[in-house]
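**User:** I keep going back and forth on a fold encoding question. It is easy to fool oneself when nobody else works the same problem. Could you pick a protein and write out its sequence and tokenised fold? Could you put it straight underneath, so I can go through it closely?

**Assistant:**
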Amino acid sequence: MNFKVNPIFKNSTESIFKNIETFSTSGTLFGNGDRNKIKLFSLNEETINIKSFKIPNIVNKIAYKYFRKSKAKRSFEFATILLEKGIGTPTPLAFLENFSWVGLRDSYYVSQHLVTELTYRELVEIADYPDYENILRQFTKFTFDLHEKGVEFLDHSPGNTLIKKKEANQYDFFLVDLNRMNFHENMSFEQRMNNFRRLTPKKEMIAVMSNEYSKFYTAKSELEIFEQMWQDTTQFQEEFAKKKRLKKKLKFWKS
């Protein structure tokens, strides 16, 4: 077993560990739990969030023991790096890994539970969401700041940015689902634009984001930013649609 707690929360180590131990039989399920399960627990009159990662296949069991850091460990370490860089994410509390003689058995990531008004997904799905364009533009500036700090968030997708209103027309942004990230000294134009590809299939949203991004990234024109962002987006959407059709066919042949 490998268990690490954020030094700030050392006094809560025993309680955190007990909550992880009883994960399967207690706690309140958060979300649908299709792949990874997230449950909420009480800790010192606050709510914490414990994420149990899907049990890996045999290849990954071995890889996570000997060659790669587990998703839980990466989530904890990446959250710590983000906060050091001044980027919003729920405060990391701990991670735990259980190993068998084969490899990684199961793993958990613990963080403070953050209640927010919306995610980026609502902007995609609800066209008349209140203060829609302002939020979208502030989100774009948030993403630009990520890039300036060398953070390539590989799962930059609609459900992985929590958005919280802090005052009139101003919003804070918090990244979640952190186990896939790259850190760079400088991000290229291609890396920056490619990082938008998962967010929305809507051309009008790409137009707003490219316009806002061009205000801060002056190495390229607004048109160049829009064209590259839209090209990366359409390519991703096409690949995603192909995978979906393939899964549907496989499901049909198995039935």
